[in-house]
């Protein structure tokens, strides 16, 4: 260990001055302590090892940590079958061939969800003795997200193909507000030039956080580059982990008129609400200002006939291009007729706030990270990033990083014993649960192949359809 006088002698000419010298000394101490601690743990594991394990020798590996590169010397064991094991690696969750510690990986991935991988490298260089490259950050992001995606795909398959009920908190609320919208990102190395990122939020209401300031209560998020059907399958399973959807009083699904958002109301068994912002924008884009108020009031009370009558009158008075604009507006309102009436009138809660939180969430979740500085993505890379952002917002990044050692690649046809065990209802309850959880069985999409598959499961008297 260096003396104080030796440290003082190093201050001259050092970039960062005394702070850099002290910090470098502290990092060195931390590395030394880490090596001693790991050696002691390895020694204790040897004493308590199970019978049949013999020490074959020692192996070293280098691991980049938050305080620099640490040399880890640990015992290599061989069991009676000849399989090699490192008890220290198993005890501390050290992954095979991992070059970065879990804590440093978590911080790198967290940064990667906020800014470009190149900037991540620069930021880490400011705070970590041995930084990691932007390609390493990119690779870490792929690993943690792919593990999550594999498990999600498996769970969705279990629910929609096998009828396994997902375990959940079972929260019951009088109403659940759900909003969906999409935003386009630029693509590279793809046939298409742009792709839509679908974003959904669900919340139980609002809570005041300051003067005239409100935050969403119990917000859940879901996003990805996928079809509408895939989106609602994934989001509904995610919500089932939190809520008992069969007992939620009323589900309100809000959107801008996109068909995939309307399908969410069918899947969740809720009512559709056309977002007031998009409604007003459409009205102001097709009508004169003095005509907007009457049509808007007719819309929010659900009087479609009155609204369309006012539009016909406006169309009769219009001239030139304005005639076509009013015609398009009539088509827009008629296409969204089921979502015009204000949901607060339906649930009998006029004091509630209106929908419309999705726009700011799209900016926060997608635009700030994925649409600035001329960024472009592959479809796979874009989907990975938005999934990573969702994990960050839910506070689950480190959880999934810590699960790397136990994660295995998903098999195309896993053997029966490898499938997760979930609670399956028996007999009539099996059908009742599916019909309660999956209202699409009776909606306008009941003739679609995926809905017919659900129907077959729901009416199979508990049999597992393969």
What's the shape? Answer: elongated
Count of domain modules: 2
Secondary structural class: alpha+beta
Order of helices and strands: HHEEEHHHHEEEEEHEHEHHHHHHHHHH
Biggest sheet features: 5 strands, mixed
Q: Ends: how far apart? A: 67 Å
**Which range does the strand content fall in?**
15-25%
Task: Name the poorly predicted regions.
Answer: 406-441, 449-466
Helix fraction by DSSP (H/I, runs of at least 4): 40-55%
What is the alpha-carbon Rg in Å? 29 Å
Q: Give the beta-strand count.
A: 10
Number of helices: 18
Strand order of the largest sheet: 8-5-4-9-10
Mean of all residue-level pLDDT scores: 85
Detailed description of the structure:
The chain is of the alpha+beta class and about 475 residues long. It has two domains: about 130 residues, no CATH class; about 210 residues, no CATH class. Helix content is about 50%, strand content about 15%. Helix 5 packs across helix 6 and helix 17 packs antiparallel against helix 18. The protein starts with a helix and ends in an 8-residue tail after the last helix. About 30% of the residues are buried.
């Amino acid at each position: 260990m260096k003396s104080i006088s030796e440290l003082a002698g190093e201050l001259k000419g050092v970039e960062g001055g005394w702070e850099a010298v002290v910090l470098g000394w502290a990092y060195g101490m931390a590395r030394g302590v880490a090596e001693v601690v790991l050696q002691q743990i390895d020694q204790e594991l040897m004493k308590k090892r199970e019978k049949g394990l013999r020490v074959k020798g020692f192996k070293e590996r280098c691991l980049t940590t938050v305080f620099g590169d640490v040399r880890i010397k640990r015992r290599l064991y061989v069991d009676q079958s000849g399989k090699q094991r490192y008890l220290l690696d198993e005890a501390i969750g050290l992954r095979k061939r991992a070059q970065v510690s879990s804590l440093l990986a978590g911080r790198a991935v967290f940064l990667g969800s906020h800014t470009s991988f190149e900037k991540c490298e620069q930021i880490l260089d400011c705070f970590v003795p041995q930084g990691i490259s932007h390609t390493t950050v990119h690779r870490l992001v792929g690993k943690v997200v792919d593990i999550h995606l594999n498990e999600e795909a498996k769970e969705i398959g279990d629910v929609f193909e096998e009828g396994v009920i997902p375990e959940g908190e079972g929260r019951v609320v009088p109403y659940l507000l759900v909003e969906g919208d999409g935003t386009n990102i630029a693509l590279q190395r793809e046939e298409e030039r742009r792709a839509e990122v679908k974003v959904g939020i669900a919340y139980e209401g609002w809570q005041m956080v300051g003067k005239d300031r409100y935050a969403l209560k119990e917000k859940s998020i879901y996003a990805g580059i996928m079809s509408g059907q895939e989106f609602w399958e994934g989001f509904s399973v995610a919500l089932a982990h939190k809520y008992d959807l069969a007992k939620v009083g009323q589900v309100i699904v809000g959107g801008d008129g996109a068909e995939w958002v309307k399908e969410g109301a069918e899947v969740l068994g809720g009512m559709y609400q056309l977002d007031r912002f998009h409604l007003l924008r459409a009205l102001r884009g097709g009508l004169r200002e003095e005509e907007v108020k009457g049509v808007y009031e007719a819309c929010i009370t659900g009087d479609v006939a009155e609204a369309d009558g006012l539009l016909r009158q406006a169309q009769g008075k219009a001239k030139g291009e304005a005639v076509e604009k009013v015609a398009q507006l009539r088509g827009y309102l008629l296409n969204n007729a089921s979502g015009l009436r204000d949901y607060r009138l339906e649930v009998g809660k006029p004091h509630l706030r209106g929908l419309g939180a999705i726009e700011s969430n799209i900016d926060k979740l997608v635009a700030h990270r994925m649409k600035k500085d001329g960024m472009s993505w592959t479809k796979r890379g874009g989907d990975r990033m938005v999934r990573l952002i969702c994990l960050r917002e839910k506070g689950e990044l480190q959880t999934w990083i810590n699960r790397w050692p136990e994660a295995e690649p998903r098999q195309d046809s896993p053997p029966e014993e490898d499938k997760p065990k979930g609670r399956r209802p028996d007999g009539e309850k099996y059908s009742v649960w599916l019909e309660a959880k999956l209202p699409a069985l009776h909606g306008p999409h009941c003739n679609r192949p995926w809905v017919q598959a659900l129907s077959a499961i729901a009416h199979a008297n508990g049999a597992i359809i393969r």
